[in-house]
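Incident log, structure service

09:12 report received: a user says their structure output differs between two submissions of the same chain.
09:20 pulled the input from the user's history:
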Amino acid sequence: PTPRRGEILVNVICSPVNPSDVLYCSGKYSSPPKLPVVPGFEGCGTVVSSGGGWMANRLVGRRVAGAVQSSQGFWAEYVVIKAVEALPMPDEVSDESAASAFVNPLTALGLARPVIKGRHRAMIHTAGASQLGRMLIRLSNRHGFPLINIVHREALVAELKEAGARHVLDSSRADFQESLTSLARELGATWAADAAAGKMTGILAACMPSGSTIAVYGVLSGNESQVNPGDLIFRGQTVTGYWLSSEFRDRSPLGLLRISRFLGSARRLLTSDLQSTAQAHVQLEDIATKLPKLLESTSRGKIYIRPGG
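09:34 re-ran on a clean worker, output below:
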């Protein structure tokens, strides 16, 4: 593609496979895309040319991270992005963490904000073993707020505790709901981030203290959220949604300043709390044959599309 003024052409190094990418490829993300499209909401690469303008020109030759909302994404050898939305990456940040600098880190910061700011005492997260879940564990330790991590099999309990998690519950256990109810009340966990949807949303509403809020930000179960109306009516539970794109809607001077600070906070933590690890790299031509199998287990790290092999 050819960059226009204010845009840059990026030679892609790698791009993560996020749940939002899978939903997009399945036609289930927001509105279905009009084909043909190039998936890949975020990634990193080297800027090889500029379409003109001071900001775009100064990035030529640098490694940057970027994100797109268009139908021309990072699962390609080259992508065009706006220079103002590109983040130059320091050498100490790995290619994988640079490629994952937007979706997971910014979502983790956004979901943790209510407890970091003190609006809630404690938090629950329903995808504890995910890369985003591990980021939340590190953020909870940094900021000192209690976090209940939910996983789907017993082996992940010990793994997360070794990674620094204090509270981990296995949803496959018969006493899961009883344990969640007891721990949520003990810690005062009135804020939850639900990546699963389906029955899990209703379980959270039933087990959390009255007046709690559940932010649904994913649909890993593949099913619609199911909630007992009685929990909404009589216990004052609230179910809302969290979409990262909404963080970037305010383009006023004050809004742009907040966005800049938000991005700066994420970039500073890419080698620590918000770093990402890879379980596999897939070349472009192998997406159809190798990616579906790899997606059967994502708790061991991110899968990255690497155009250059």
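09:41 both user submissions now match this output. Likely a transient worker issue. Closing.
09:42 reviewer note: The mean pLDDT is 93. The first helix runs from residue 19 to 25.
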